[in-house]
């Protein structure tokens, strides 16, 4: 009788349960990250982390985990969240002594490998060099007439609506969008003129929520087929409709900047160059209205330094310490970016905050929980601009470092807009529901 191979046996439901149990036991007790504290559900599955993103509250929920456990929390089977201040340079900085670099999350690169946010280290350096001059303090200062044109229009529009409740979140967004549009692609979006948002901008902002879903789906290979269905058809149509043409120079010996690079960076510049500043100004305005005594100090500083509005410019607002302290404290209370920039340790592992971390571990720092940490700030949930003035010994040990490539534009633009708003108007929160 000829030899017949046995039929392959199919896995039963019981087999799947057994395998899941074995994987859970391994993750809980034998995985290289098992020594780090965190919820049991997070140790055995990425689903809790994905749900935090889906609920739109990852910053708040991660803060709660750090408060419950410690400064290093396991938020997924192969992922850690840090709140140690030294972790900033250990995760995102260059490694010394030839140690392997922490790379960006490859799943993030699937969505944005052609811009600063998702590029690998080589292309990130190329993109940063190409953009750095445009974000220098000198380059931004040279654009003051252009920026003033849109702030003038904002002030005019607000005078037209004086005495009536206005949505300052919208007005700030329209102003910063027109500014960054003119700065980056040579043409405003016309938001202040209409006033309303441009469809291209609405498309970008509308995509953000769905792109975060797609990014997390990448962690679940069996469900990747769902990605095309997560973004509404109308939004997909709008994404395909927008097009930007621009010119970027490159240094000899570097690869050329492609049209795809330009389109990706246009979206990044619009978001980073407008939403961050608008969010800062919105948060600042709300906090000032909630704290009238701080608003009074700010008004006194502006009124005492300027006899006419024409005197308010980039140079003069840089000499307003209270204004800068208010903006910095608002950035701490309401950081514009609520999510983290996930990186991955090299295969051989690395050391973060003196802790040996296994290779291929996803590592994060969330801004919002870190800025609300009582280890680093006295009364972290309170709006106290004095912590940035160095006049209160009680706040002397607060950790005040904030940094990013676009800070020059954000700081100059925010100070100028805020000073002129305070110079022109009294503010209070609307009592309308």
Task: Walk me through the structure.
The protein is mostly helical and 433 residues long. It has one domain (19-424): Cytochrome p450. Helices cover 52% and strands 5% of the residues. A five-stranded mixed β-sheet has the order 1-2-7-4-3. A two-stranded antiparallel ribbon has the order 5-6. Strand 1 (72-76) and strand 2 (79-82) form a beta hairpin. It is globular, with a radius of gyration of 25 Å. The chain starts with 12 loop residues before the first helix and ends in a 9-residue tail after the last helix. 32% of the residues are buried.
| CATH architecture label name | Orthogonal Bundle
How would a crystallographer describe the biggest sheet?
5 strands, mixed
Could you report the average pLDDT, rounded to the nearest whole number?
A: 80
Judging from the principal axes of the Cα atoms, what is the shape?
globular
User: How much β-strand is present in the residues?
Assistant: 5-15%
- Indicate the low-confidence ranges by residue numbers: 238-255
The gyration radius over C-alpha positions equals 25 Å
CATH homologous superfamily name? Cytochrome P450
CATH fold assignment: Cytochrome p450
Order of helices and strands: HHHHEEHEHHHHHHHHHHHHEEEEHH
Q: What distance separates the N and C termini?
A: 86 Å
- CATH class descriptor name: Mainly Alpha
- Give the % helix: 40-55%
Structural class: mainly alpha
Q: Order of strands in the sheet with the most strands?
A: 1-2-7-4-3
- Count the beta strands: 7
Total tally of structural domains: 1
Q: What is the helix tally? A: 19
